């Protein structure tokens, strides 16, 4: 308390000296008294006081308003207004009196002491609060994910730069808006708009994770897959004062997941479905046929004739290119709803769905044979492919995909023993 310096700005010299004497009796340092607002800023810069006591009449002048603003916002020094009786009445009538923001010029020393201490204390608390606010803002703005803070009513209080970039909304235009207006989220699994997550978290009183397949609809209409959570904000007493929503653009993660899933279910060389995906689709087809008595399908198992000789004669690189070319020809022979898969080596499997009878299956086999009869030009080498095909039909009460594949494989080997470039029906 005893180190606090106070600058007095009062144009009534006698009154100014009385105030100075009172302050010095209370243990304050009063290095300067000024009667004009012209040199106030110079005195503030020179003395660096802890508080400025200024006549409210001087402060209300146009120049005085600017000076007080500079003192408070540039020098960050609190201001305590000195008022006379008439000014006190005006303040109360206009309901403009801020608690501990002014003090009557004629007052007891204890009241002056109290007003000065409260003004300095308020400034210290305000400064600490502002420093803490700036620190938290800096932390939030430094985060690599989007952060949106709402009030308890679910309306936006602040957004960090990442949230601005993600949503397309600036903080100043988003402030006070309902969260769903700025952060428009869609649950793609349920195909529905997600209600205000902030109010949901506040009502639940716990952290809520975003749905697995959640999409943000940005201001410009762009759809962004996002993830993370929303949590209620509690004060020191445990009362909920708002919510914080943390969002991350998971586009790259979704792409990686999709690629990993594709790699797990597709052949790396030909990009065709592999055995795992083929069996999964075949299992679904079997279940579908159980629900529909008129639903027929067939499995074709295909083995290239003489593929080992191609590898031995032309090399494995030509052999790989040959398999890729065969894959494209097989795809061209099928409908969009059918499946062709590579099982490894020179073995392929075909699933033909929703057929009428065995004729549809044999027609596909013939179409494949005709397509393969046209020579392939691989890196300057002309290669004439042929294949043996086995057909297993769904009319034998199959429950397991492996049984269909087994029977189609048996039919394929029978065809191969009969002279290759043939098809056979189990």
TrEMBL record:
It comes from the Bacteria. PROSITE patterns: GGDEF (PS50887), PAC (PS50113), PAS (PS50112), RESPONSE_REGULATORY (PS50110). This is Response regulator receiver modulated diguanylate cyclase with PAS/PAC sensor. InterPro entries: Biofilm_reg_signaling (IPR052155), CheY-like_superfamily (IPR011006), GGDEF_dom (IPR000160), Nucleotide_cyclase (IPR029787), PAS (IPR000014), PAS-assoc_C (IPR000700), PAS-like_dom_sf (IPR035965), PAS_fold (IPR013767). SUPFAM superfamilies: CheY-like (SSF52172), Nucleotide cyclase (SSF55073), PYP-like sensor domain (PAS domain) (SSF55785). Keywords: Phosphoprotein. The modification 4-aspartylphosphate is found at residue 55. Residues 132-205 form the PAS domain. The keyword tRNA-binding does not apply. The keyword Phosphoprotein applies. Gene3D superfamilies: 3.30.70.270, 3.40.50.2300, PAS domain. It holds the Pfam family GGDEF.
């Amino acid at each position: 308390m005893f180190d606090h310096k106070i600058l007095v700005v009062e144009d009534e010299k006698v009154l100014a000296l009385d105030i100075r004497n009172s302050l010095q009796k209370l243990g304050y340092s009063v290095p300067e008294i000024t009667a004009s607002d012209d040199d106030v800023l110079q005195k503030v810069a020179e003395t660096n006081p802890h508080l400025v006591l200024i006549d409210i009449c001087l402060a209300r002048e146009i120049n005085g308003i600017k000076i007080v603003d500079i003192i408070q916002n540039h020098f960050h020094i609190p201001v305590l207004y000195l008022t006379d009786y008439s000014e006190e009445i005006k303040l109360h009538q206009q309901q403009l009196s801020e608690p501990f923001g002014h003090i009557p010029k004629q007052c007891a020393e204890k009241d002056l002491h109290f007003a000065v201490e409260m003004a300095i204390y308020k400034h210290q608390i305000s400064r600490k609060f502002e420093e803490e606010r700036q620190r938290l803002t800096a932390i939030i703005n430094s985060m690599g994910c989007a952060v949106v803070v709402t009030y308890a009513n679910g309306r936006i209080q602040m957004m960090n730069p990442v949230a601005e970039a993600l949503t397309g909304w600036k903080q100043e235009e988003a402030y006070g808006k309902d969260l769903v207006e700025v952060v428009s989220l869609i649950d793609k699994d349920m195909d529905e708009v997600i209600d205000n997550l902030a109010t949901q978290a506040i009502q639940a009183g716990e952290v809520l994770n975003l749905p697995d397949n959640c999409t943000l609809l940005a201001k410009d209409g762009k759809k962004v897959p996002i993830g993370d959570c929303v949590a209620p904000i509690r004060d020191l007493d445990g009362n909920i004062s708002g919510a914080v929503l943390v969002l991350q653009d998971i586009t790259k993660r979704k792409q990686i997941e999709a690629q990993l899933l594709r790699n797990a279910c597709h052949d790396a060389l030909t990009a065709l479905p592999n055995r795992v995906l083929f069996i999964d689709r075949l299992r679904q087809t079997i279940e579908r046929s159980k629900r529909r008595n008129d639903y027929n399908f067939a499995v074709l198992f295909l083995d290239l004739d003489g593929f080992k000789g191609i590898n031995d004669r032309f090399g494995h690189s030509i052999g790989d290119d040959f398999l890729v070319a065969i894959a494209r020809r097989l795809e061209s022979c099928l409908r969009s709803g059918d499946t062709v898969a590579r099982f490894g080596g020179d073995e392929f499997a075909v699933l033909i769905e929703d057929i009428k009878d065995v004729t549809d299956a044999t027609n596909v086999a013939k179409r494949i044979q005709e397509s393969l009869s046209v020579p392939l030009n691989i890196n300057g080498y002309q290669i004439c492919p042929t294949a043996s095909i086995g057909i297993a039909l769904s009319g034998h009460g199959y429950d397991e995909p492996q049984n269909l594949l087994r029977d189609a494989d048996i039919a394929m080997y029978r065809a191969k023993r009969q002279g290759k470039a043939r098809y056979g029906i189990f």
